[in-house]
Design a protein that fits this description.
Blueprint (H helix, E strand, L loop, with lengths): L1 H29 L16 H27 L8 E2 L6 H27 L2 H7 L19 H8 L1 H8 L2 E2 H18 L8 H4 L10 H10 L10 H5 L7 H12 L3
Parallel strand pairs: 1-2
Length: 252
């Protein structure tokens, strides 16, 4: 277990540092003034906030790596639907499996996230993540250990309900990490034309998730706003916030 667990942990950590650190370096260190017009909250987190977010994220990867070990290196693997050769299902299925995984994850995240906002659950599972009322990219994986187990639970869900190649799983997690970091970026980098387009209105945005961190309710989605719209949990001020942000950009 030792070597594989360590390798899995280091890969998870390096992915986090590369993606969250890359966004942080650009938007918080070398170009913060240039991107102020994209900023969602006028103030910036304090150093202690960054350290807390990084510390909890480092802990989170222990639990994700544990899931990876159980699924890929323990006797549990033979009961999963994971496969090794892409040729077994072909490239079209390989690509489709990633898309389907994103759809399943969007639904899974919405309901687990909404569940963790139940008053009896919130303080135990989700309060740690919401200490970041003004999140930075480092907050993407800043979870209490119990929430980490829930968030990482998407991995066993996926490999038990559909055949997935290990490289498809890897691509899925890279995509989810990028979207996760974007949601906690503190800046809106999607262009106005995209957000206000017919398709873009269904996309989750950094505006949406930043409002969730600031107000603690509504906007529970991950990749999309579909489930928030369907189940009536969109923050009623969302459109106003979007218009306000882009109004500032054009000087109105």
């Amino acid at each position: 277990m030792g070597k594989f667990f360590l390798y899995a942990y280091l890969i998870l950590l390096l992915r986090y540092v590369a993606i969250a650190g890359g966004f942080f370096f650009i938007f918080y260190i070398i170009k913060p003034v240039r991107f102020l017009k994209l900023r969602l909250q006028s103030d910036f987190p304090q150093k202690k906030d960054y350290l807390r977010e990084i510390g909890y994220s480092i802990l989170t990867f222990v639990f994700i790596a544990l899931y990876v070990f159980i699924i890929l290196r323990s006797p549990v693997k033979k009961y999963t639907l994971m496969y090794d050769r892409i040729s077994d299902y072909g490239w079209i299925y390989f690509a489709a499996s990633i898309v389907f995984a994103l759809i399943v994850h969007d639904f899974y995240f919405y309901w687990t996230h909404r569940f963790m906002h139940h008053p009896r659950i919130f303080k135990i599972f989700h309060r740690v993540h919401h200490l970041s009322t003004n999140p930075s990219p480092w907050a993407a994986f800043a979870f209490h250990p119990l929430e980490a187990l829930v968030e990482a639970g998407i991995l066993p869900v996926l490999v038990f309900i559909m055949p997935m190649n290990r490289f498809a799983v890897l691509i899925f997690f890279v995509i989810s990490t990028v979207i996760n970091v974007y949601g906690h970026l503190g800046y809106e980098i999607y262009p106005e034309w995209l957000i206000k387009s017919s398709a873009g209105k269904w996309l989750n945005t950094s505006v949406s998730h930043n409002m969730h961190h600031k107000y603690f309710k509504g906007n529970y989605g991950f990749y999309t706003r579909v489930w928030d719209v369907v189940f009536g949990t969109v923050n009623p001020d969302y459109d106003r916030k979007v218009n306000e942000l882009f109004g500032k950009r054009v000087g109105t």
